Amino acid sequence: MSLTIAIDGPSGSGKSSVSRRVAAALGLAYLDTGAMYRAATWWCVQQDVDLSDQDAVSALVLELPLEMGVDPSGPTVHVAGTDVGEAIRESSISTAVSAVATNLTVRDEMRRLQRAIIDAERSGGFSSGGGVVAEGRDITTVVAPDADVRMLLTASEEARLARRARDVHGADDAAAVDATRDEVLRRDADDSTVSQFLVAADGVVTLDSSGLDLEGTVDAVLAVVSQVTGSSR
Ligand SMILES: Nc1ncnc2c1ncn2[C@@H]1O[C@H](COP(=O)(O)OP(=O)(O)O)[C@@H](O)[C@H]1O
Ligand SMILES: Nc1ccn([C@H]2C[C@H](O)[C@@H](COP(=O)(O)OP(=O)(O)O)O2)c(=O)n1
What we know:
The protein is α/β, with parallel strands linked by helices. The protein has helices at about 15-25, 35-45, 55-60, 90-100, 105-120, 140-145, 155-170, 175-190, 215-230, and strands at about 5-10, 30, 65-70, 75-80, 80-85, 130-135, 150-155, 205-210.
């Protein structure tokens, strides 16, 4: 049986880490849609385009030579044959990505690509039975509102800042948390002008991971999947 799981949430809520593990546990493909917006941003920066020039950014992204690898044990992102998996996580990209992700032509194109990948995986790409865990900001609402399981992963601002500070600066003291505010809070504010990921839409199950560790959050998602699908696969 093919299974599509859609997970949205703000920065640092744990979408990527949790979705990847859920996909591995269920033998499904894993699609990180945020990585696609990051790759588009990397490409525009590489091509020296002014990110505030909406037309120039749109034109470039419509030709984006992007390839997403969806194996949860080693997801990959290639642009024009270059492995950009690490480069797209740099702070310079995190700071710039919302300018590209709020461009509506870019969003249309990214959604088209995301639906194509999800559809291909539904009918058996990575997973023999077919299926995918796709995560981002508008997967439950716009990209795959027909997913079998739709979840909003949340966490308190404090937990999200501390997690991102540990990831980026290796510490969660006051200075590290402060240095992370722009990457988390300003970005969420900008991103939420074009996507609704702070409150669950109708039919979307909310999971607050503030008081859970990674393993506990994965287990909680798997429990929701079992409940919704009526099987533990
Ligand atoms: N309960 C939890 N759920 C998910 N991630 C957690 C949890 N506690 C700590 N973390 C850590 O927080 C970070 C979450 O980052 P990430 O998965 O990139 O979030 P997002 O994709 O939502 O921005 C990871 O380093 C992860 O290991
Ligand atoms: N479906 C999506 C996924 C991500 N985005 C945007 C919002 C984010 O600022 C960037 C990067 O997303 P990503 O999930 O990598 O962000 P995190 O750093 O994990 O919080 O892309 C989006 O607009 N729609």
